Amino acid sequence: MILYGRLYHIMNVNELISIDPDVCFGKPHIKGTRIKVSFILELVSSGWTIEQIQQEYDHLSREQIIACLIYAGHVVDTHNGKTEISHEV
Length: 89
Fold this sequence. Notes:
The chain is mostly helical and about 90 residues long. The protein is about 50% helix and about 5% strand.
C-alpha cells in the first residue's frame, strides 16, 4: 500500500483518472476520453505492453496508462468488502 500511495500522489492520479456519472456510466476512466480503467486492465492482463497500448491508442500517454494501473492498485488495497468474482468471459 505504501508504494501505491506514494505513486498515487506523485503522479496525481486524480488529474488523470475521472469518475463522472455522464461518462462511461460513472465508471473510472481516463480523463478526457471514454476509455475505462477496466479496459486498460483487460489489455494488460491479456499481455499487452504499455507500448502496444500506445501504438493502438496513440492519443494516450504513458502516464495515463500507468495511472490506470496505480488507480486499480489503490482501489484493491483500500477495498474493505468481499467482491464476488464473475465467471463471465
